[in-house]
Design a protein that fits this description.
Structural class of chain B: alpha/beta
Largest interface: A-B, 47 and 32 residues
Helix content of chain A: 55-70%
Distance between the termini of chain B: 22 Å
Shape of chain A: globular
Number of helices of chain A: 17
Order of helices and strands of chain A: HHHHHHHHHHEHHHEHHHH
Number of domains of chain A: 2
Helix content of chain B: 10-25%
Number of strands of chain A: 2
Strand content of chain B: 25-35%
CATH class of the largest domain in chain B: Alpha Beta
Strand order of the largest sheet of chain B: 4-3-6-1-2-5
Bound molecules: flavin-adenine dinucleotide, FE2/S2 (inorganic) cluster
CATH architecture of the largest domain in chain B: 3-Layer(aba) Sandwich
CATH topology of the largest domain in chain B: Rossmann fold
Largest sheet of chain B: 6 strands, antiparallel
Distance between the termini of chain A: 22 Å
Oligomer: heterodimer
Structural class of chain A: mainly alpha
Radius of gyration of chain B: 25 Å
Shape of chain B: globular
Strand order of the largest sheet of chain A: 1-2
Radius of gyration of chain A: 24 Å
Chain lengths: 422, 374
């Protein structure tokens, strides 16, 4: 991927600014159609999901009181994992977006909600709602792109640190809730900049520590102690740890699918100066990817399977995204844009593939074969040891080589190529 | 979501224990509270946020109905004539309105309110036509000083339309109606009451039968005036209808026009008057207006095309904000009173005192004077 503005075939080159504004009006009309019909059924839906989640969590924790027995451990752990997923995805994420504020129920409101996650709601709302949703996929502004620890775009310079990013991403996936907390604190940037002395940072850090302490006390002390009478202390502790990991892996995977898969566009910082509402919409359309699947899949992903619809209308109730998805997709077709949707497994694969590919300098994988592996590794080693100029030069050479090889192949087998394209 | 507190009557060690138990329960349910789980099973229990369950909906006239509500355990009781603020979800949106209690304390502990459906009325129409037994509603404790003095006296009650409701609460309390007819207990003998009941026509009158029965039993004297037969009531003719008006304290409840006229009349005559207004204030919806911020004490003049966020910042008010385009909810503030208009689709949001509607300031402009809790 390359920022859209630098691509040879810019996917919106065919749209005039009048087209883009018209597209914006058509999207506004879709949003309004949901606002006009938002009502008691939607309210009943979220209340039902919340009640179901609470019953499930209570039930699972009750079963875990007897988790010394393996079947109870399995059932309780699975139930708790699902409860935590529901709580974070379909409930927490969406309530914190203000999707349910219109109900004016102070107990289901973005200003009062707190969630079962290491990061305090307040801090997450800032980094997610205000930064990520406003600057979606703008390189240098949207830190969600690679969470500041990964290279996720060809245009980001390759550094040796990228070689480790498959590992970082794996660790981030296992401990995702702590990763998010650190990310919301801008911990890395603050450490690098010496911002940890800043009173605002200290205050936020204290809040994170307090939140983590409460969460950990609940999962790893109180509930295991409650299970002590049946001798289930350790099994309950393990069950909570596993449930948290299940939730972490799941939410990390779903979220990776939202903006990382191949086919999702990124944007230059400059491109959003004076951006109109229509252009903002287009950026959301091209900067997000959906997961296709069943109703259950949509609920378990918190309807982030409708990432495109969610990014266009972050404040519409999640249960209504499915209904507008065909209308949104029709607009993609009408305006000649690509609606990026795949089932979960290909989408996760695509996102991970990108992480692997970009851990290496541009063009390295393409120009490497079994035969030249030793020399390529030597080149890579040189790039690790060398300075930025060495890296830039070596990468430019490989990109050029790769392009030549592609062109040669295309010339040699035009028929095969056409067939493949069809 | 306040946590239940230990009862002070417990001995000290037990208090310490129950405090510890509460802390343990909180540690087990964080980030929620134990109450959030208990609400699933026992929403009316002691210590819960105050709620009630509708147990019965009884039609009174073509457009009025009485709702019998079982209140939560923490209901603190009320005096006849007081009102209760009721929060109901209509089309999924929580709406709060005040309704007079139409009974004294009942033996079954239930509350009753009588609601008249006003044209286009969001809550009244819902309560009269759609509310079903079993529905949970939200309550506040009873409030209001439209109550009779305990020592008795001579009174004139002027009621118009649904303004009969607080008065019927007082009368039922003084003179309970039973299978044997209206009772006149000794404690009520100190009350000499005339009811002047005004309505557009006889069939529209809520509680007319109750009033007639009270009149027949000699508990009150009823003077009924119907616009269609007697013409619209002229307050200057009050002494004709109630010759001993000067000896009476007047209690009046009805439309603003009637109350204003009575106030002027009684002021001039130097008579005592107590009123209950059903419509506290009308929010004027317009274009732009003065926006005041209660905590900072600043008032800003904002036009109908400028987001409140921009207007306030321009005037130096420190405002929370984020995307400034309506997507992040980083700019929300409680609107305590007034009206705002969504600049994206023109939708107007109105708050009357007590509502505290949370609105996004970055995409809403003032639609009349408004006040924020900020
Ligand atoms: C202290 C107090 C006690 C009250 N007791 C009772 C009671 O016992 N029984 C009862 O039925 N109501 C009572 N009310 C009025 C009640 O609170 C609501 O205002 C009324 O039910 C209308 O609400 P709504 O949501 O249906 O109308 P809204 O949707 O708020 O208003 C719709 C339309 O009706 C008009 N409107 C609003 N209120 C009234 C009104 N009171 N009369 C005529 N038109 C109105 C509005 O201007 C608007 O045009 C009381 C009000 C107060 C302040
Ligand atoms: S500032 Fe983001 S919604 Fe108002």
């Amino acid at each position: 991927m390359t920022v859209m503005q630098k691509k040879a075939d810019n996917p919106i080159a065919h749209l005039t600014s009048a087209d883009i504004e018209q597209l914006g009006r058509e999207l506004d009309a879709i949003r309004q159609s949901i606002l006009d019909t938002r009502g008691a059924d939607d309210a009943a839906y979220i209340r039902k999901v919340i009640a179901t989640q609470r019953y499930l969590e209570l039930g699972s924790r009750a079963v875990l009181l007897f988790s010394i027995f393996p079947p109870a451990w399995l059932v309780g752990t699975a139930g708790l994992g699902v409860a935590k997923i529901l709580e974070n995805m379909e409930i927490g994420h969406n309530v914190l977006h203000g999707q349910w504020d219109w109900m004016r129920d102070p107990k289901i409101h973005s200003t009062t909600w707190e969630w079962d996650n290491a990061t305090p709601a307040e801090q997450w709302k800032h980094s997610h709602n205000e930064l990520h949703h406003t600057y979606t996929n703008v390189i240098g502004k949207d830190n969600d792109l690679g969470y500041g620890i990964m290279r996720v775009d060809e245009d980001q310079p390759w550094t040796p640190a990228a070689l480790g990013q498959v590992g970082y991403n794996f660790v981030n996936m296992m401990f995702f809730e702590y990763g998010i907390a650190a990310y919301d604190l801008e911990l890395r940037g603050n450490l690098a900049r010496g911002g940890t002395k800043d009173p605002k940072f200290k205050e936020n850090a204290r809040k994170v520590v307090r939140k983590i302490r409460r969460q950990a006390t609940k999962d790893y002390v109180v509930h295991p102690l409650l299970a002590l009478p049946t001798g289930s202390f350790l099994p309950t502790l393990a069950a909570n740890a596993v449930a948290n990991v299940i939730r972490n892996v799941w939410s990390h995977s779903v979220i990776m699918c939202g903006h990382f898969p191949e086919g999702v566009e990124t944007f230059e910082k400059r491109s959003i100066d004076g951006e109109t509402k229509g252009e903002w919409y287009v950026r959301q359309m091209l900067g997000s990817a959906n997961i296709s699947g069943s109703k259950l899949m949509h609920i378990m992903t918190g309807n982030l399977s409708h990432q495109i619809e969610h990014h266009l209308f972050p404040d519409l109730p999640s249960n209504r995204y499915a209904e507008i998805a065909p209308q949104v997709q029709a607009l993609f077709e009408k305006y000649g844009l690509t609606y990026c949707a795949r089932p979960l497994v290909p989408q996760v694969y695509s996102a991970w593939h990108k992480v692997v590919r970009l851990s290496l300098p541009n063009g390295w994988l393409e120009t490497t074969s079994v035969k030249n592996l030793p020399s390529q590794l030597k080149l890579l080693y040189g790039m690790v040891k060398g300075g930025p100029r060495v890296r830039r030069a070596a990468q430019a050479r490989m990109v050029q080589q790769a392009r030549k090889a592609r062109e040669a192949k295309a010339a040699a087998a035009p028929v095969a190529e056409e067939r493949a394209a069809a | 979501m306040s946590a239940p507190t230990a009862t002070p009557s417990l001995p000290r060690s037990e208090r310490a224990w129950s405090r510890r138990a509460v802390r343990l329960a909180e540690a087990a349910t964080t980030p929620l509270l134990p109450a959030d789980y208990l609400d699933l099973f026992a929403p009316l229990r002691p210590g819960a946020a105050l709620r009630g369950r509708i147990v019965e909906v009884v039609p009174e006239t073509a457009d009025a109905a009485t709702l019998v509500i079982k209140p939560g355990s923490d209901w603190a009781g009320h005096l006849p004539g007081q009102y209760v603020r009721v929060g109901v979800d209509v089309d999924g949106v929580r709406q709060w309105r005040a309704y007079s209690l139409t009974h004294g304390a009942r033996r079954d502990g239930h509350l009753s309110i009588t609601v008249k459906a006003v044209p286009d009325g969001v809550v009244s129409t819902y309560l009269v036509r759609e509310a079903k037994p079993g529905t949970l509603v939200h309550l506040e404790q009873a409030a209001g000083d439209f109550v009779l003095p305990g020592e008795g006296g001579k009174f004139l009650m002027v009621t118009a339309g649904s303004g009969i409701t607080p008065v019927i609460g007082m009368l039922r309390n003084l003179f309970p109606s039973t299978a044997q007819g209206v009772l006149r207990p000794a404690r009520s003998s100190a009350y000499d009451i005339v009811v002047l009941h005004v309505a557009p026509s006889e069939p529209d009158s809520i509680f007319l039968r109750d009033l007639q029965a009270l009149d027949a039993a000699g508990a009150i004297r009823l003077v009924a005036r119907y616009d269609d037969t007697h013409g619209v009531l002229d307050v200057d003719s009050l002494t004709d209808l109630v010759p001993d008006l000067a000896e009476r304290v007047t209690f009046a409840c009805g439309p603003a026009g009637l109350l204003d006229a009575l106030e002027a009349h009684h002021d001039e005559a130097g008579l005592a008057l107590q009123t209950e207004k059903f419509r506290v204030s009308r929010v004027a919806v317009g274009e732009g207006g003065s926006v005041s911020f209660a905590q900072s004490g600043t008032t800003v003049d904002a036009d109908g095309g400028t987001p409140i966020l921009d207007a306030a910042e321009e005037a130096g008010v420190l405002m929370p904000s984020g995307c400034r385009m309506g997507v992040c909810f980083g700019c929300v503030l409680p609107l305590t009173e007034g009206a705002v208009r969504d600049l994206r689709n023109g939708e107007v949001t109105v708050a009357t005192p007590g509502d505290n509607v949370i609105v996004q300031t970055c995409i809403n402009a003032a639609a009349g004077p408004c006040e924020f809790d900020h």
